[in-house]
Write a structure and sequence with these properties.
Blueprint: H1 2-11, H2 19-29, H3 39-49, H4 55-64, H5 70-78, H6 90-98, H7 105-115, H8 125-135, H9 139-152
Helix pairs in contact: 1-2, 3-4, 6-7
Amino acid sequence: MKKEWRRLLERHGFEWLPHADRDAIFEQIDIGQSKGISARGFIMAVEAAAPVRTLQDLRRRWLASGFRSMTQAVNKMTEHVSMHGERLTLLEFGEALREVNVLDGEEHLALFSAICNDPGSRTSIDELTSAIAMVSPALLLEDVRDRLLTKYGNDV
């Protein structure tokens, strides 16, 4: 499959890219290490690379990054924050977002601005969770699905 990937990139104008770089891109997209790239995997990689400017974009990034539910992503963020309700500055909020594949400072600012209603410019993971629930009303269903997949695998 790597050879096919290299040929595909060459046919579409990326012949200047060294083989090592093409292989590195392949490895990034081959999330399950299956030695192949599915159409779904490719679309997920493209979506994961898209900038995060809105809460819908954040949800898309998390799903494309392999989080099976928004709750799973939020829980990963809170591993480094003592409490969900702790008030965070933009810098602290950005550090928590880095844990869930939101790496760019402009993305941090866009999300912070979208949910921050504190005149002292602080927000919390709880506020982010509430905001995500507004764009993802099926948050509870995602969590139930994640738990079922964890317990029963793909037999669900």
